[in-house]
Amino acid sequence: MLQPFSYVMALPVLFVLAFVGWCISLPRRNVDVVDTLWSLMFLLAVVLYAGFPPETVRGRLLFVLVAVWAIRLSVYITARNWGHGEDRRYQAIRARNQPGFEFSSLYRVFLFQAVLAWIISLPLYGAVGSDTPLGVLDYLGIALWLIGFVFEAGGDWQLARFKRDPANAGKVMDRGFWRYTRHPNYFGDFAIWWGFYLIALSAGAWWSIVGPLIMSGLLLRVSGVALLEKDIGQRRPAYAEYIRRTNAFFPGPPRD
Questions:
Q1: Domain residues of the chain, as ranges?
Q2: Burial class (CB in 10 A: 0-12, 13-18, 19+), 12
Q3: How confident is the model over 78-129, as pLDDT tens digits?
Q4: CA 202 from centroid of its chain's CA atoms
Q5: DSSP string of 141-157?
Q6: d(CA 76, CA 79)
């Protein structure tokens, strides 16, 4: 059963987490911590929606799926960013919003991402309270989540291993999952969120489609593929050939 109060109250709680992240960013002069918190916002949201421990089978299922995805992604991003400067994306935002970005980043970066997470989490809210038995759509959602998790976690692991080898300096990663899509991690995230939606759809929350649609738009057109590849061809000429032969997002055979 839906609990509208839990959804409404989730936003101020996410704001608190975002505010803590902003406070951490100030002495570091680096807002990358928001990337560490991004997936954890969804884990916090599902706990707020379902309670702890969740009462329904679907609620327990989603808690496990979200926890596995969120904790792995947060740990990976933290390890990847550790000891490095601020990401180029945030450096550009910082440069465009001076003076005073240190303070305006509270709403430009942290609170904004909290609002996005709150809206995108609609499938989680729509599904966790349903006590109807699991059905075909739930199992299809789990299968799609598994495909997405393998692509996302596997792609991240393959890229990290590739970068650790000094012999690969300046080279383009085009092996493993990266042979079939230029962004296996983004495709994986896409599949995970549509998997969540199928579980929500099984619970009758068809209206929560706005969540995966927004996530898909972010991955394809805003902060994902489009932003990452905006000038990568100029910075890395070998990437142009990689673009020619490799699908941008959905996996497919390379074009030789």
A1: 1-131, 133-256
A2: exposed
A3: 999 888 888 888 888 898 988 989 999 999 999 999 999 999 999 999 999 8
A4: 23
A5: HHHHHHHHHHHHHHHHH
A6: 5
